[in-house]
Design brief:
The protein is mainly beta. The protein is built from 14 helices and 46 strands. The protein has a 22-stranded antiparallel barrel. It has a 5-stranded mixed sheet with strand order 1-4-5-2-3. A 4-stranded antiparallel sheet has the order 13-12-22-19, with no helix packed on it. The chain is elongated, with a radius of gyration of 30 Å. It starts with 7 loop residues before the first helix and ends with a strand. The relative contact order is 0.14.
C-alpha cells in the first residue's frame, strides 16, 4: 500500500477554521486588551506598557533593538511571545515556542536532531530568515549569552535554547531585522531577546503531564516561584524559582508505518510512467517479488566469515555464519535459493542470511530529555530615581539515547595527525599504511607479543573456523550485544547585575554586567576503540563465536567509555547614557551612547583525537573540536528624532574591535511615518557583520555525513551495481529496485577543514513595513525584508568533485576524494565515495528576501470575548551566488548540506483564536508549513527540477497542516486547570524519502507532529 494523510481530515480542519474566519466580518471591535497575542508591534507595546505601569520609576522599558530608554516603539519589526501566549497554544517550553516562529526557517537545530547524530548533541537553536544558526543572536535581558560548547555541524557557534529558564521568562522579543548597530556580531538575520520577570509577589507554580495517544512521548513539568516585597511601596522585591521538566525519548518502533521500518516497498509512484515502489532496505531483505536480489548486507549484528589466504590478500570463498549452530543472533534467518545465490549481486552471500530491520530495532525519533534549574533575583530601589538588581541562574539539561550496534568494520574518522585507519579496506594514499581488511588470524598470541604470531609462539585461533587449513577468516558484522549510546549533561551558571535610573535630573543611565559559564559532559559508550579491537583479535580474548559469553570486563576493554568535557564562557559589561537634548515639533530629540566589553571562550577538545597514533582512537566518533578565546571592545550610539508628530527618524551605529584583529563599523538608519492615526509606515537600512566562529577558524577536521540518493548518481556508475545484468536487471536512477544494497543505502562523509585566514561576513539589510489599525481592536502588519550577505563562509561546492569521481576524471583542485571499501559482492567495480575533503572559504553571496504578515484582533460579544492572531512568513528568495553562479533554494531541499536536507519552506505560519468566557477559555491554533520540490541546486540540480526525487516518489513533499486546542478552567482566583490536545486531527508529517535529518519525514517541517495526537493536562496556582 502507499502512505498518504490528505483527505477527509483536511476537510474537518477547514470546517473548524471557517467559522473563525467569518467573524472577521464583524462591524466593530471592542476596546479591551487582547488576552492572547503572539506577534506584531501593537502587542509588544501592550505587554511592555503594562509592565511599565506595574514597574514604576526605574522600570522604563527599552525596546529590543534600541538603547534609548522610554521609547514606546522601535523602527524595526518585533514579534513578542509572552508566557501567556505559550500557555494558550499548549506549548510548554520557550524553546518550542521559538522553534514555532513563522520567521524560523531552514537550518534550525531541533532537539530531534540529537537522536540522529547531530554534532551539537543535546542542543536546540533558531535560524531566522533561513540564514543558519550563527546569524541569529540570542540575548538574555539584552546581554549576550555563552555559546553552546559544541558547534552546529562542527563550525557554527550558537546559543542553546534549552538553557532558557522557562519559569521566570516574562516574554521573548524577536527583532526581525539586522541589529549589528546595537548588538554587534551575529545579529544579521535578527535577535531573540529573552526577557525575565522583574518582580514576583506571592507564590505561584504549575504541574502538568502529557502523553501521545499512542502511549509514547510522555512529558512532565513542575515549577514553583515565590517572591516577596513591593518595589513601589517597599522599595524591593526578591524571588526564587525552580523547575523540573522531563520528556521521554521516542523510538522508531513506536511509530506507525512507514516511519517504523526500513522497508519502503509501500511507498509507490507512477511519476515515471509506470508504477515504481521503494526498496526494501531491511538488511538482507527481499525485493517486491519476495526474492533475495539486493546483495549480501555485511553490517548486521551477526558475525559472518569467509576464508582468505594466510596473508589476507585473496578471498577464497563465500561468507558463512561464524556459528551456524547459533543461527541468527539478531534478525530473521533466510536461506537463499540456488538461483538467488547465482546472481552477481549475491556473489559472496552465505547459505543463511539474517534479515535485520535497522530502523525498527534501532531508530530514534527524539532523545530522553531532562531539565532542572533554579533562579533567584533581588531588585531594589536606590534613592528616588534608580533601581538595581542581582540575578543568578543555574540549569542542568541532560539528553540520552541508544543507537545502533557497535561497529567493528569501518574507516576511522578523518585523521588529524595521521591518515585514517581502516578495517574495511587495504591501504591507499589516504588510508593508513598499516590498515587491513578485518580478519581473524590463524594463530593467537598474547597481545604483548612483538613480531609475527605463528606456530612457534601461538596457538590455533579458536574463533577462526579455517585456522586448521592455514587460512585467515575475513570477519564482517557488528557486535550483537553492544550498542552505541550518547549522553550529554549541560550545566549552565549565570549571574547578572545591573543598575539603571536617572542622574543629573535628566540623564538616563544603565549599567549591566553578566557572567555565564557552561560545562558540557559528553559520555559515549559502545564505540570500538580501534587498538583494543586489534588486541582482542590478536590474543583471542573476545569470543566471536558466542558473543554472549564475553565478560563485562572484555566488553569494557573493547568499547571503553569515552568522556569529553567541554566548556564555554562569556563575561560582559555594558554601560549606556541617554539624554533628551532638545525639543522638536514631534517630541524630544534623544541621544544615547554606550560602550561594551565582553570576553568569550570555548574549550571543546576533540572527542576522538589521534595524537597517540592512528589506532589509538575510536571508530565512528567524530574528531572535531575547537578551542579559542577573544575579547571584544565596542562603542555605540543612537539618535531618535521625532521631527514632527507624523515623522520620527532614527540613526544608530556601533564599532566593534576584536582582540583577534578584526574590526567592523555597523550603521543603521530608520524612519517611522504616520500620515494618519490608523496607518504607520516604517523602514530601516543597516549594515552588519558576522565574525568567523571558533569552529570555522580553529576547529579540527570535521566530518558530516550527507545521504547520497540514487537520483544524484550517474547511470553509468550505477550500472556497475546491477543485481542481474545478464537478465536485463540494470541499476539506474529509474530502476532503483535493480540496484544492490551497497549503492542504494549510501552516505558521503564531507570533511571540512578550518581556516584562520577567513574574513568576517558582511551584510546589508533593509526593511519596509506598514501597520494599519482600521478600527480599535484590529491591527494589521506587513513587513518586507531584504538581506544580502557577502563573503559568506562556506565549504566549496562539492558537486564538481563528486561528479568527477563518478566520471573517472581528474578531481578538481582543492578537493580530496577518498574511495570507500569495495563491494564484497562486486570487487572489480569502482567503489562508492567514503569522504570528500575541502577547506572553508569566503566565497558566497547569500540573499534572503521575504514578507511577514501579522493580524491581531479582539471583539467583545458580551458573554465572551474573541481574540485572534495570525502570523505568516513568505520567503521570496533564499539564494547563494558562488563564482557568478546563482543557486536558489526557496521551495526546495536546498541548501541541502546546510539544512540536513530540510530545505527552505516558502510559507510558514500559524493562526490562534481564543474564545474567553471569563472562567472558561477555549483556544484553537492552526499551524501551516508549505511543501517543497525534491531538488537542490547545491546538489547539481536545476531549480525545482525534481532532481533528488527517487523514481518511487513524486516531485513534491506535501504541505503540512496541524491544529491544536487548549481549554482552561478558572476555578477561582487561585487555581486554573487546563487541558491541551495537540495535533487534534492526528495528522502525521508527509513522507519525505530524501531528507536525512530524520527518517522519511522532515524534522523541521513535521516537528512534534510525528507523535500524532497528544494530550496534556495541568494546573496553575497563584497565592
Amino acid at each position: 500500500m502507499t502512505y498518504s494523510w490528505m483527505g477527509p481530515r483536511k476537510l474537518g480542519l477547514l470546517a473548524t477554521v471557517a467559522p473563525l474566519s467569518m467573524l472577521l466580518g464583524a462591524p466593530a471591535f471592542a476596546q479591551s486588551v487582547p488576552a492572547a497575542n503572539q506577534n506584531a508591534e501593537a502587542n509588544a507595546q501592550v505587554a511592555q506598557g503594562a509592565e511599565q505601569a506595574d514597574a514604576g520609576t526605574g522600570g522604563d522599558i527599552v525596546v529590543t533593538g534600541s538603547i534609548i530608554r522610554g521609547a514606546d516603539t522601535g523602527v524595526s519589526p518585533v514579534s513578542t511571545i509572552t508566557a501567556e501566549n505559550l500557555d494558550v497554544r499548549g506549548i510548554n517550553t520557550v524553546q518550542a515556542g521559538i522553534q514555532a516562529l513563522a520567521s524560523n526557517n531552514g537550518p534550525a537545530l531541533t532537539n530531534s536532531f540529537t537522536a540522529n547524530g547531530a554534532f551539537a548533541s543535546g542542543a536546540s537553536s533558531v535560524s531566522l530568515r533561513g540564514l543558519s544558526t550563527n546569524s541569529t543572536l540570542v540575548l538574555f535581558d539584552g546581554l549576550r549569552a555563552a555559546y553552546y560548547p559544541l558547534s552546529d555541524d562542527g563550525t557554527r557557534n550558537f546559543v542553546d535554547l534549552n538553557t532558557i529558564p522557562d519559569d521566570i521568562v516574562d516574554r521573548v522579543e524577536v527583532l526581525r531585522d539586522g541589529a549589528s548597530s546595537s548588538y554587534g556580531a551575529d545579529a544579521i538575520a535578527g535577535v531573540v531577546n529573552i526577557i525575565t520577570k522583574r518582580s514576583v509577589k506571592g507564590v505561584m507554580g504549575r504541574a502538568e503531564a502529557g502523553i501521545s495517544q499512542r502511549g509514547y512521548n510522555a512529558n512532565q513539568r513542575v515549577s514553583l516561584t515565590a517572591g516577596t516585597g513591593d518595589l513601589d511601596e517597599q522599595g524591593y522585591n526578591a524571588y526564587v524559582s525552580g523547575f523540573y521538566y522531563r520528556s521521554e525519548g521516542v523510538r522508531a518502533s513506536q511509530l506507525p508505518a512507514p516511519y517504523n521500518t526500513s522497508d519502503e516497498r509501500g511507498i509507490c509512484s507512477n511519476r515515471t510512467g509506470s508504477l515504481v515502489c521503494g526498496p526494501n532496505n531491511i538488511a538482507n531483505g527481499l525485493d517486491a517479488n519476495n526474492q533475495f536480489t539486493n546483495g549480501f548486507a555485511i553490517n548486521t549484528p551477526n558475525f559472518y566469515v569467509r576464508p582468505a589466504d594466510a596473508t589476507n590478500t585473496t578471498a577464497l570463498g563465500r561468507y558463512q555464519l561464524l556459528n551456524p549452530a547459533a543461527g541468527c543472533l539478531t534478525g530473521n534467518p533466510y536461506n537463499p535459493t540456488a538461483a538467488e545465490l547465482a546472481l552477481p549481486a549475491n556473489a559472496t552471500a552465505p547459505g543463511t542470511v539474517c534479515q535485520v530491520d535497522t530502523q525498527r530495532l534501532y531508530g530514534n525519533i527524539t532523545p530522553d530529555i531532562e531539565r532542572v534549574g533554579g533562579s533567584a533575583r533581588f531588585t531594589a530601589k536606590i534613592g528616588d530615581t534608580s533601581e538595581a538588581y542581582l540575578q543568578v541562574n543555574f540549569q542542568q539539561a541532560t539528553t540520552s539515547y541508544t543507537g545502533t550496534p557497535t561497529v567493528i568494520r569501518a574507516n576511522a574518522p578523518a585523521g588529524i595527525l595521521f591518515p585514517q585507519y581502516s578495517t574495511s579496506q587495504n591501504p591507499t594514499s589516504a588510508i593508513d599504511p598499516n590498515s587491513a581488511i578485518l580478519a581473524l588470524p590463524v594463530y593467537v598470541c598474547p597481545r604483548t607479543t612483538v613480531g609475527a604470531c605463528n606456530v612457534t609462539n601461538g596457538t590455533l585461533n579458536p574463533n577462526n573456523p579455517f585456522a586448521a587449513a592455514g587460512q585467515v577468516a575475513r570477519l564482517v558484522g557488528q557486535l550483537p550485544n553492544s550498542f552505541e549510546s550518547t549522553n550529554t549533561r549541560s550545566r549552565v551558571y549565570r549571574a547578572a547585575f545591573g543598575i539603571n535610573g536617572t542622574i543629573l535630573n535628566d540623564v538616563d543611565y544603565r549599567f549591566d554586567a553578566t557572567a555565564m559559564h557552561t560545562d558540557l559532559r559528553l559520555e559515549q559508550n559502545g564505540y570500538v576503540y580501534i587498538q583494543h579491537l586489534l588486541d582482542v583479535i590478536k590474543d583471542g580474548s573476545y569470543n566471536f563465536i558466542n558473543p554472549g559469553q564475553n565478560s563485562q570486563a572484555t566488553l569494557n576493554y573493547l568499547t571503553p567509555t569515552n568522556i569529553t568535557n567541554d566548556s564555554s564562557d562569556l563575561l560582559q559589561a555594558q554601560f549606556t547614557l541617554g539624554k533628551a537634548i532638545m525639543t522638536l515639533p514631534g517630541g524630544d530629540l534623544r541621544v544615547a551612547v554606550g560602550g561594551s566589553i565582553f570576553y568569550e571562550a570555548i574549550d571543546a577538545p576533540s572527542a576522538n583525537s589521534d595524537e597517540n597514533g592512528p589506532t589509538q582512537r575510536y571508530f565512528r566518533l567524530n574528531a572535531f573540536g575547537t578551542k579559542g578565546n577573544r575579547t571584544v571592545s565596542s562603542a555605540f550610539y543612537e539618535v531618535n528624532a521625532p521631527v514632527v508628530d507624523q515623522l520620527t527618524l532614527n540613526a544608530s551605529g556601533r564599532y566593534d574591535h576584536y582582540s583577534s584583529g578584526q574590526s567592523a563599523f555597523s550603521p543603521k538608519f530608520g524612519a517611522i511615518f504616520k500620515p494618519i492615526r490608523q496607518v504607520t509606515l516604517r523602514g530601516t537600512y543597516s549594515r552588519g557583520f558576522r565574525i568567523p566562529s571558533f569552529g570555522e577558524a580553529n576547529a579540527l577536521p570535521t566530518t558530516g555525513y550527507v545521504t547520497q540518493s540514487l537520483s544524484s548518481i550517474p547511470d553509468a556508475f550505477l550500472s556497475q551495481y546491477s543485481i542481474n545484468p545478464g537478465a536485463g536487471q540494470i541499476c539506474s536512477q529509474k530502476t532503483p529496485t535493480n540496484c544492490s544494497g551497497y549503492i542504494s543505502n549510501y552516505s558521503i562523509g564531507q570533511t571540512t577543514l578550518a581556516s584562520q585566514d577567513l574574513a568576517p561576513e558582511k551584510s546589508r539589510s533593509f526593511t519596509a513595513g506598514i501597520k494599519v489599525d482600521p478600527v480599535r481592536g484590529l491591527s494589521l502588519t506587513v513587513d518586507y525584508y531584504n538581506i544580502r550577505k557577502t563573503g559568506a563562509i562556506t565549504t566549496p561546492d562539492l558537486s564538481p568533485a563528486i561528479a568527477a569521481y563518478y566520471a573517472g576524471t581528474a578531481i578538481p583542485g582543492g578537493f580530496t576524494v577518498i574511495p570507500d571499501a569495495v563491494d564484497v559482492n562486486n570487487p572489480n567495480a569502482t567503489p562508492k565515495i567514503a569522504f570528500v575533503r575541502s577547506q572553508l572559504i569566503n566565497a558566497q553571496t547569500i540573499k534572503s528576501e521575504g514578507i511577514d504578515f501579522g493580524m491581531n484582533g479582539f471583539y467583545d460579544f458580551g458573554s465572551f470575548r474573541w481574540n485572534t492572531n495570525l502570523n505568516a512568513s513568505l520567503i521570496l528568495e533564499l539564494s547563494t551566488t558562488v563564482d557568478g553562479k546563482r543557486q536558489t533554494y526557496v521551495d526546495t531541499l536546498g541548501n541541502f548540506n546546510l539544512t540536513a536536507g530540510s530545505g527552505t519552506f516558502e510559507w510558514k505560519g500559524n493562526w490562534v483564536n481564543t474564545f474567553d468566557f471569563g472562567d472558561f477559555a477555549l483556544t484553537g491554533t492552526v499551524n501551516y508549513t508549505s511543501g517543497y520540490d525534491l531538488s537542490a541546486m547545491d546538489q547539481g540540480d536545476a531549480y525545482k527540477d525534481c532532481g533528488q526525487a527517487p523514481a518511487y516518489f513524486g516531485c513534491r513533499v506535501k504541505s503540512y497542516i496541524t491544529a491544536d486546542a487548549n481549554a482552561s478552567f478558572k476555578v477561582n482566583d487561585k487555581f486554573t486547570f487546563y487541558v491541551n490536545v495537540l495535533n487534534v486531527f492526528n495528522r502525521l508529517p508527509p513522507v519525505d524519502p530524501v531528507t536525512y535529518g530524520a527518517y522519511l519525514y522532515n524534522a523541521v517541517q513535521g516537528g512534534d507532529g510525528i507523535f500524532g495526537r497528544q494530550f496534556r493536562a495541568g494546573a496553575k496556582f497563584n497565592f
